[in-house]
Fold this protein.
Amino acid sequence: MATYKQPCVHCGAFIERDSRLCPSCGSRSPFGYHCPTCQREIEKGQPVCSGCGRSLMVVCPTCGQPTFADERCEKCGAGLMIHCSNARCGELQFFENIKCTACGKKIKKEVGK
Ligand SMILES: [Zn+2]
Ligand SMILES: [Zn+2]
Ligand SMILES: [Zn+2]
Ligand SMILES: [Zn+2]
């Protein structure tokens, strides 16, 4: 049984190519980076998304340092994803997203978490 495996860009674990989630580090985009707002593929280090024009450098809400718009802060490792506030959805969303990319509803930010 030949299954294609590819390394996760975040942790390097070999995982099946059709996986949507890395079982090793839990990343939801194991084979590349995606714009957190429009989901377009982006390169690490790219300053601005070519799809929606958002800046791909953000300020980490935990340590206050600039970091690439990824699932985790490059500086302190704090997660940059929040769960959609819509109870029926609950998808992980980038903390700066105003609208959920999964259900399209507005995300209410929980303060102090
Ligand atoms: Zn991984
Ligand atoms: Zn974008
Ligand atoms: Zn940080
Ligand atoms: Zn949602």
Summary: Residues 5 and 15 are 5 Å apart (CA to CA). Residues 34-106 form one domain.
